[in-house]
Structure formats: C-alpha cells, structure tokens
Amino acid sequence: MSLSGKVVIVTGASSGIGAATALEFAKHGAKVTLVGRNEANLKASVASCKAANSKADLLPIIADITVDAKRIINETVEKYGQLDVLVNNAGIFEVGNILDIDVDQFDRIFNTNLRAVFLLTKLAAPHLIKTQGNIVNVSSVTGLRAFPGLSTYCASKAALDHFTRCIALDLAPHKVRVNGVGPGVIVTDIHARRGLTPEGVAEYLELCKQTHALGRVGEPKEVADAIIFLASDNASFITGAVIPIDGGKHAMCPR
Ligand code: NAP
C-alpha cells in the first residue's frame, strides 16, 4: 500500500474517527502528526499507536485548528522535512432549528468545519505539490442529504464536499489528489458532545438501525480504512471523489 515513511497530518486525532485513522496510518509505518486540543486524549491516541507499532514515528500537537493552522503545518515540516498526506478530520456537530439557533452557531460550525480546512489546505498545498501527495477530507452523509434541525452542520459539510471537488481541480495539474469520505452515523464521542445523555446516545444508535440500509451504525475503523485507501497509491486515479461510508444511508429516502 506504500504508506510506509509517508508524512501524514491527522486533525482531530484525539478522538473517534481521527484516532482510528492515526492508528491505521501508524500501523502502515507512516510518520504521523496527531492534532487535537484535549491533551489527555491525544496522549491516549499516541499510546494506542505505539502499542500497535512500537517503532511508530509520531508528533502530537496540541492545537486548535481554527487558530493554529500555520503552526500545525510548520511544526510537521520542521520535524519531518516534508508532507505527503493531510487528513482534515476534526469537526464539530451542533443541532437546532433555524427558529432557535443564532449566528454564533453558524460561525462556530463554519470556522471549524470549513474555514480551518480552507486554511490548512492552503498552507499544506505547496508542501503536497513537492511530494505529489494528497488530501482526504472527512465530510458526512449530511453533506449529501438534508436533515431537519441540522442546517448549519449540513451546510458546512455540503460546502466541504464542493470545496473538495474544486480543490481537486486546482491541484490536479500538480498531481495532488483531493478526496473525501462521507460517514453515516459512527460510534464516537460526537453524539455525547452534542449534549445527549448515555441513555440518549443508546436510544439514538438503536434508532439508527432503521436509518442505515445495512441495519447498523458504523465503527471508526470502517471510516479509517477508507481514508487509508484514498491516501494510498491504490487510489492513484481517484480525485474529486467523496465516498459514502454510511451503510447505504445516503441511498435511502423515507416512504
Ligand atoms: P469526535 O469523537 O467528537 O472527535 C472530534 C475530533 O475533532 C476530536 O479529536 C476533537 O479534538 C477534534 N476537534 C474539534 N474541533 C477542533 C478544533 N477546533 N481544533 C482541533 N481539534 C478539534 O467526533 P468524530 O465522530 O470522530 O468526528 C470526526 C469527523 O467525522 C468530524 O468532521 C465529523 O463531522 C465527521 N462525522 C462524524 C460522524 C459520526 O457519526 N461520528 C458522522 C459523519 C461525519 P479535542 O477533543 O481534542 O478537542
């Protein structure tokens, strides 16, 4: 799969899909910059990577992607001398009807889910051109389908999907590929972070059996495996694609 020795940045590597992705890259022998804000969780991710590959070369960076994009790219290139893959995974999820939410929610969501991705992409691009590397953006089924009470999150992911396609065209002449994945509901802390109780999370995940064609929710590793594929040479002729990793949720329609 030829990811050995590649220099990879994974944002949001302190939890969920990002932690699983950093782990898979470490198993493949990549040099991984793990970015997150929560120091204890980031340390736990580093420990998991080391447990899976004792020789793993890792650079944990405690950073907020909305303010530290430059530092994340610079520290990675200073340590490793190059950049091969950027995984824009960090994201936040908030709910609320347009009648109730205010513009602060819009700003929070778009600052994290889109503006920070724009900045990281812009700063990473010159380095990725040198290595003919690639970018994988973690979007959502909500980028493709509309859901009530989720307007800002859905819009941020729809914008991210189109950003992925546009940047794929900008960077194609430089042989840099840009793709995305669109997860359905995946078992991570994101559901508790939006304020659900443990019982509420369990109830929601149970309900999701009906909203995913395969009759179940997904695991972080199932998304990580797709990211690894897109980042590898096995996907050498794929760019501008956003692959649903959602048990068929994107194909369903209520009737
Ligand atoms: P998660 O478990 O809540 O993890 C989110 C990660 O993003 C954490 O590592 C968090 O870091 C990081 N993060 C958020 N804001 C950040 C910021 N400003 N700066 C740095 N790091 C930041 O969520 P997840 O489910 O793994 O989500 C990962 C991605 O998948 C997101 O883009 C999400 O929208 C997408 N997604 C998830 C699902 C799902 O059902 N789980 C479905 C579709 C799409 P700290 O905790 O260290 O702050």
The total domain count is 1
Q: Residue ranges: pLDDT <50 for 5 or more in a row?
A: none
Which structural class best describes the helix and strand composition?
Answer: alpha/beta
Q: For the record, what is the CATH homologous superfamily label?
A: NAD(P)-binding Rossmann-like Domain
CATH level-3 fold name: Rossmann fold
The ligands bound in this entry are: NADP nicotinamide-adenine-dinucleotide phosphate
Strand content: 5-15%
Write down the overall mean pLDDT.
97
Question: Separation of termini?
Answer: 42 Å
Query: From the coordinates shown, what is the CATH architecture?
Result: 3-Layer(aba) Sandwich
Indicate the percent of residues in helices.
40-55%
- Topology pattern, helix = H, strand = E: EHEHEHEHEHEHHHE
> How many extended strands?
7
* Annotation field: number of helices: 8
Q: Strands of the largest sheet, in order across it?
A: 3-2-1-4-5-6-7
Shape: globular
